[in-house]
Amino acid sequence: MAEVVQSFNCAKCGAPLKLRGGEAVIVCEYCGSANNLREDKFYIVRHSWMPNRLAKDDAIKRAREWMSGGVIMPPGMERSEITKAELVYLPLWVFEAKAKTDYEGLFLREGERKVGGTEEKELYWKVLGRRESAFPVQEYKVPLSAKVPFSIEESMEGQMLNGEMNEDEAEEQAKQEIGEHMRKLLAKKVDKFERCDTKVKFDESEFIHIPVWFIEFAYGGKPYKLYIEGTGGEVVKGEIPPSDFLGGEMKLIMGIAAALILFVICGFVALNFMR
Predict the structure, then answer these.
(1) Domain containing residue 12: CATH number
(2) What pLDDT is stored for residue 91 in this prediction?
(3) Residue 24: inside a domain, yes or no?
(4) SS3 31
(5) % of residues, the chain, pLDDT over 70
(6) Which of 36, 100, 192, 204 shows its CA 20 to 30 Å from the CA of 15?
(7) 4: pLDDT confidence band, cut at 50, 70 and 90?
(8) Is 239 in contact with 225 (CB distance < 8 Å)?
């Protein structure tokens, strides 16, 4: 665990905050306020959370269900050893944003045609508040109906992580990611960009803690990871081990197809022989 490097007080209740190296948004252990560090001063930001509704046994059960999820899974994967099942509350910055992109370029799929214009989008953009994490934040769908104001009085299992990125840094990252997102959307209209300028206007922002079950399992002697969100039990993303051979269902399908093809060929040869 990182050592406490500086001493600050909560901007709301005045209680001491445990600030560890690299952290920029600290949740007060006394009043539950989220303190956002800017220029050596803390400011309170709007703070919500998604309560966890998935017990450990249920998370493991959900993992097993995902592992036995059809032909894309290698055989026997549902019997993999689960080596870790840990609940972590991850910090997330969420921005309501409006993006406006002015673009010019060439459309080359039907000859060469010059294109250009303006594309506007209203977005609900997420930025993970941790600098080093493999969690696929853009694949996580925020269950807004379950969001509630954060309360330190609520019983909370698992580990809650503070943010390592303050609001300004998260907003800057959101701008860059939104610009890339708009460019990808416009790739349907533009094959070669001559200009692509995106301006982003931010409205509301919020700091949210989300419950995520970090599952690790072993298959074929190698470790793999699976992320399950704890509010609704949805699998956010899982690593699927490569397989050198097809699963049982796919084998059966391909076996039937091969038999049918062989039957047709034999019938065709027999008909020609009889002639």
Answers:
(1) 2.20.28
(2) 96
(3) yes
(4) coil
(5) 85
(6) 204
(7) very low
(8) yes
> Would you call 177 exposed, middle or buried from its count of C-beta atoms within 10 A (0-12, 13-18, 19+)?
middle
Span 52-107, pLDDT tens digits: 999 999 999 999 999 988 778 898 898 999 999 999 999 999 999 999 999 999 99
In a domain, 73, yes or no: no
Q: Residue 259 is encoded by which pair of tokens?
A: 């038999």
Structure tokens at 210: 């989300």
Domain holding 100, by residue range, is 51-68+78-244
Grouping H, G, I as helix, E, B as strand and the rest as coil, residue 260 is helix
Let me know if residue 256 belongs to a domain. Answer: yes
Token duo for residue 229? 């969100």
Number of domains in the chain: 3
Q: Which residues contact 142 (CB under 8 A, 6 or more apart)?
A: 50, 92, 94, 124, 126, 208, 210
Q: What distance in Å separates the CA atoms of residue 159 and residue 212, rounded to the nearest whole number?
A: 10
